[in-house]
Amino acid sequence: MPSRLRVPLGYAAGLVVLVLARPSPLPLAVGLAVAAAGEAVRIWASGHIEKTRSLATGGPYAHSRNPLYFGSITMALGVAIASASPWVILALVVYLVAFYPSAIRSEAAYVSGRFPQEYEQWSHAVPLFVPRLTPAGPRRSRFEWRRVAMNKEWRTALAVPAVALLLFLRSLL
Predict the structure, then answer these.
(1) Domain ranges, ordered by start, for the chain
(2) What is the pTM of this model?
Protein backbone atom coordinates (compact mmCIF):
# COMPACT_ATOMS: atom_id res chain seq x y z
CA MET A 1 0.00 0.00 0.00
CA PRO A 2 1.42 3.46 -0.85
CA SER A 3 3.16 5.13 2.09
CA ARG A 4 1.43 8.46 1.39
CA LEU A 5 -1.84 6.84 2.55
CA ARG A 6 -0.42 5.84 5.95
CA VAL A 7 -1.38 9.04 7.80
CA PRO A 8 -4.85 9.61 6.25
CA LEU A 9 -5.78 5.97 6.76
CA GLY A 10 -4.36 6.21 10.28
CA TYR A 11 -7.00 8.83 11.05
CA ALA A 12 -9.64 6.54 9.53
CA ALA A 13 -8.34 3.67 11.69
CA GLY A 14 -8.64 5.98 14.70
CA LEU A 15 -12.32 6.52 13.94
CA VAL A 16 -12.83 2.77 13.60
CA VAL A 17 -11.16 2.33 17.00
CA LEU A 18 -13.53 4.84 18.61
CA VAL A 19 -16.60 3.20 17.11
CA LEU A 20 -15.58 -0.36 17.99
CA ALA A 21 -13.94 0.30 21.38
CA ARG A 22 -15.53 -1.05 24.53
CA PRO A 23 -13.15 0.38 27.15
CA SER A 24 -13.49 -0.20 30.86
CA PRO A 25 -11.26 1.11 33.67
CA LEU A 26 -8.63 -1.66 33.91
CA PRO A 27 -7.95 -2.16 30.17
CA LEU A 28 -8.01 1.61 29.73
CA ALA A 29 -5.38 2.13 32.43
CA VAL A 30 -3.13 -0.71 31.24
CA GLY A 31 -3.47 0.25 27.58
CA LEU A 32 -2.69 3.89 28.19
CA ALA A 33 0.42 2.95 30.19
CA VAL A 34 1.59 0.83 27.23
CA ALA A 35 0.80 3.65 24.78
CA ALA A 36 2.71 6.13 26.95
CA ALA A 37 5.72 3.79 26.97
CA GLY A 38 5.56 3.68 23.17
CA GLU A 39 5.52 7.47 23.02
CA ALA A 40 8.49 7.62 25.41
CA VAL A 41 10.45 5.46 22.94
CA ARG A 42 9.39 7.78 20.10
CA ILE A 43 10.52 10.88 22.01
CA TRP A 44 13.86 9.24 22.78
CA ALA A 45 14.28 8.28 19.11
CA SER A 46 13.19 11.71 17.85
CA GLY A 47 15.90 13.30 19.96
CA HIS A 48 18.55 11.35 18.06
CA ILE A 49 17.46 11.60 14.44
CA GLU A 50 18.23 14.28 11.89
CA LYS A 51 16.55 12.89 8.80
CA THR A 52 18.72 12.85 5.66
CA ARG A 53 21.61 14.67 7.43
CA SER A 54 23.21 11.91 9.48
CA LEU A 55 22.66 8.32 10.54
CA ALA A 56 21.27 8.06 14.08
CA THR A 57 23.06 5.22 15.86
CA GLY A 58 22.94 6.23 19.53
CA GLY A 59 20.24 5.93 22.17
CA PRO A 60 17.37 3.71 20.98
CA TYR A 61 19.09 3.32 17.59
CA ALA A 62 21.72 1.21 19.38
CA HIS A 63 18.92 -1.23 20.30
CA SER A 64 16.77 -1.23 17.14
CA ARG A 65 17.19 0.24 13.67
CA ASN A 66 13.53 1.30 13.76
CA PRO A 67 12.71 2.63 17.24
CA LEU A 68 10.19 5.16 15.90
CA TYR A 69 8.18 2.35 14.32
CA PHE A 70 8.67 0.19 17.40
CA GLY A 71 7.30 3.04 19.53
CA SER A 72 4.37 3.55 17.17
CA ILE A 73 3.48 -0.13 17.20
CA THR A 74 3.76 -0.16 21.00
CA MET A 75 1.36 2.80 21.07
CA ALA A 76 -1.04 0.92 18.79
CA LEU A 77 -0.82 -2.11 21.08
CA GLY A 78 -1.68 0.17 24.01
CA VAL A 79 -4.70 1.54 22.17
CA ALA A 80 -5.81 -1.99 21.31
CA ILE A 81 -5.56 -3.02 24.97
CA ALA A 82 -7.40 0.13 26.10
CA SER A 83 -10.19 -0.46 23.60
CA ALA A 84 -10.95 -3.92 24.99
CA SER A 85 -12.29 -4.99 21.59
CA PRO A 86 -11.07 -7.87 19.41
CA TRP A 87 -12.36 -5.94 16.38
CA VAL A 88 -10.07 -3.03 17.21
CA ILE A 89 -7.14 -5.41 17.53
CA LEU A 90 -7.97 -6.85 14.09
CA ALA A 91 -8.32 -3.39 12.52
CA LEU A 92 -4.98 -2.25 13.97
CA VAL A 93 -3.19 -5.42 12.87
CA VAL A 94 -4.51 -4.99 9.32
CA TYR A 95 -3.41 -1.33 9.28
CA LEU A 96 0.06 -2.10 10.67
CA VAL A 97 0.66 -5.04 8.30
CA ALA A 98 -0.51 -2.95 5.34
CA PHE A 99 1.98 -0.14 5.95
CA TYR A 100 4.86 -0.87 8.30
CA PRO A 101 6.79 -3.71 6.57
CA SER A 102 7.04 -1.77 3.30
CA ALA A 103 7.88 1.49 5.10
CA ILE A 104 10.68 -0.25 7.02
CA ARG A 105 12.08 -1.79 3.81
CA SER A 106 11.87 1.51 1.94
CA GLU A 107 13.62 3.45 4.69
CA ALA A 108 16.33 0.79 5.01
CA ALA A 109 17.02 1.03 1.28
CA TYR A 110 17.18 4.84 1.45
CA VAL A 111 19.41 4.99 4.54
CA SER A 112 21.77 2.26 3.30
CA GLY A 113 22.16 4.16 0.03
CA ARG A 114 22.67 7.52 1.73
CA PHE A 115 25.12 6.31 4.42
CA PRO A 116 26.51 3.02 2.99
CA GLN A 117 29.58 2.45 5.19
CA GLU A 118 27.98 3.57 8.45
CA TYR A 119 24.80 1.64 7.69
CA GLU A 120 26.65 -1.60 6.99
CA GLN A 121 28.50 -1.51 10.32
CA TRP A 122 25.37 -0.48 12.23
CA SER A 123 23.01 -2.96 10.55
CA HIS A 124 25.27 -5.89 11.37
CA ALA A 125 25.21 -5.03 15.07
CA VAL A 126 21.65 -3.74 15.59
CA PRO A 127 18.45 -5.69 14.82
CA LEU A 128 15.96 -4.37 12.28
CA PHE A 129 12.97 -4.06 14.60
CA VAL A 130 12.75 -5.97 17.89
CA PRO A 131 15.16 -4.18 20.23
CA ARG A 132 18.16 -5.90 21.70
CA LEU A 133 18.56 -5.53 25.46
CA THR A 134 22.08 -4.09 25.39
CA PRO A 135 23.20 -1.32 23.05
CA ALA A 136 25.42 -2.16 20.07
CA GLY A 137 26.98 -0.55 17.05
CA PRO A 138 28.74 2.79 16.71
CA ARG A 139 26.43 4.88 18.99
CA ARG A 140 27.43 8.24 17.50
CA SER A 141 24.22 10.26 17.91
CA ARG A 142 23.28 12.03 21.15
CA PHE A 143 19.84 13.04 22.40
CA GLU A 144 18.86 16.68 21.92
CA TRP A 145 15.47 18.22 22.73
CA ARG A 146 15.79 20.53 19.71
CA ARG A 147 15.61 17.46 17.49
CA VAL A 148 12.42 16.34 19.22
CA ALA A 149 10.92 19.73 18.37
CA MET A 150 12.39 19.76 14.86
CA ASN A 151 10.88 16.33 14.18
CA LYS A 152 7.49 17.60 15.43
CA GLU A 153 7.14 14.76 17.90
CA TRP A 154 4.83 17.00 19.94
CA ARG A 155 2.05 16.00 17.54
CA THR A 156 2.32 12.34 18.48
CA ALA A 157 2.90 13.19 22.14
CA LEU A 158 -0.41 15.08 22.19
CA ALA A 159 -2.15 12.08 20.65
CA VAL A 160 -1.72 9.92 23.77
CA PRO A 161 -3.77 12.14 26.13
CA ALA A 162 -6.25 12.88 23.31
CA VAL A 163 -6.83 9.17 22.72
CA ALA A 164 -7.07 8.62 26.47
CA LEU A 165 -9.74 11.28 26.74
CA LEU A 166 -11.69 9.96 23.75
CA LEU A 167 -11.59 6.38 25.02
CA PHE A 168 -12.62 7.53 28.49
CA LEU A 169 -15.57 9.42 26.99
CA ARG A 170 -16.38 6.33 24.90
CA SER A 171 -16.45 4.26 28.10
CA LEU A 172 -19.21 6.51 29.42
CA LEU A 173 -21.51 5.69 26.49
Answers:
(1) 3-171
(2) 0.92
